[in-house]
Amino acid sequence: MIFVRETSAAVVLVTLTLSLQCAGMAALIAWARPSFEPDVIRLRPIPSAMLMMRLMTAFIGLDVLEILLWAGFYRWLCFPLWESAFYFSAASYATVGYGDVVLPQMWRTLGPVESIIGVLMCGLSASFLFAIVSRLVAREARVSDHLVSNTRGISPGTRIRQSISRFNSRHG
Question: Which range, of 17-21, 33-37, 164-168, averages the lowest pLDDT?
Answer without folding.
Answer: 164-168
